[in-house]
Amino acid sequence: MTSKCPSTPLHPDANQEIETPATKIPQELTSALDLGSDSEDDGSNIMHDAHLAKVISKTGGPELSEEEDEMDNNDSLMDSDDLERLDPEVMDAMAPMGEPLSPRPSPSSSDSASGVASSGFFDTDTQKRRTPLNPFGGNSQLASSEPIRIIRKKSRSQGASKPLSMKQQSRLVTYIDERLMEIQRRFIKYLSAREDPDNEPESTATQFGFSDLAEALDKVITIIWYSIFQVKVVPFVYHYNILTPSEAAVLGYNEGKEVVLEEITPDFLFGQTNYFIRIMGDLVDYVEKFEFVHFDSIHNLLLLFAKLDNIISILIDEYSEDNGPSRTNNQPFINNTEKIRIDSIISRTKLLVIQKFDVFKKISLYESVDENGKRKQIESDIKKDIQKYELLIGEIYEGILDRTSI
């Protein structure tokens, strides 16, 4: 309810005289407040004042005396008959926010009849309180996402895959470690050759671009993913629009947007989540040393982020403590400590990629200026690509963030 109250006078300075407010209290409010003689202590006034104490306490008014407060605590003082005798103005003050208020006559009828001006204490226009929207709600679907349907299959069904043996796990761990170490050696060799002034820009030592790095990491990610679900295709639950038509065709999404995944047990995991987190951290170091000069490098980077985002999101979603498959220990495949590590890496990643993309945009705009300083006409498809990648960069790892943020 919207109300109009007299403005509170400013606090006077020392030795300053002020005038008392000349505003008169409306007649209907005077009767509601019962401003009669203090000597009147009949039962109806006592009950009326007791309930008025409740109204004043709710509206932040002055406290009543101990005697009146004691009467207020007696629930038997107010019954339905007493409530009916209360003035509608006091009933409005008692009504909770958002609930219908007592019916009130229009200003033309009531004010003209009682002689009270329309600019009284209470505004006649009432409106229910609106429920505010939560701006921090989780995303059900990202702007660039077209979710892939995931079909669950029982792991105990006929023809279901089995966990790797201890010997196979050992061989796979050794292979993954060697591949990641080889990628790091090539990257360090590339940085050394790039900083060496004796090397020519066209030398083979400096030809290790980000596309080569992304391709090598993508193979390792696919192997780790296959060791868990024994499926080559990573479902793009998020970031489906990152894929080009040719990439979607290679993954088989053109035939049908659904992937069958088996329900696995902890026996299928032997450190794969740690490898995913390690690759996420290594990507931050790699991106920091590379400079993007064309959209292909940015696309390959976002494709890696999308794969990691979907893989970890699937592990969190399908096998959390709440909705995971029944198992003895009932432990999540990604625990809270790993989630904290992931959130820290994501924060660094998003800030770094935004900075790199801002530099890339400045280079693109600089190259569009000729020697005379006149700006060349930028093709419309380049503008669309910039807008597209700005949107995709803003959604990096959003699937994980929706599941790990507080």
UniProtKB/TrEMBL annotation:
Pfam families with a match to the protein in the record: TFB6
Regions of compositional bias (Low complexity) in chain numbering: 107-119
Acidic residues bias (residue ranges): 64-82
Domain of life of the source: Eukaryota
Coiled-coil residue spans: none
One GO CC annotation: transcription factor TFIIH holo complex
Positions of region (Disordered): 1-148
Alphabetical list of InterPro entries matching this protein: Tfb6
PANTHER family in alphabetical order: ADR380WP, TFIIH COMPLEX SUBUNIT
Protein name according to UniProt: Uncharacterized protein
Organism: Eeniella nana (Yeast)
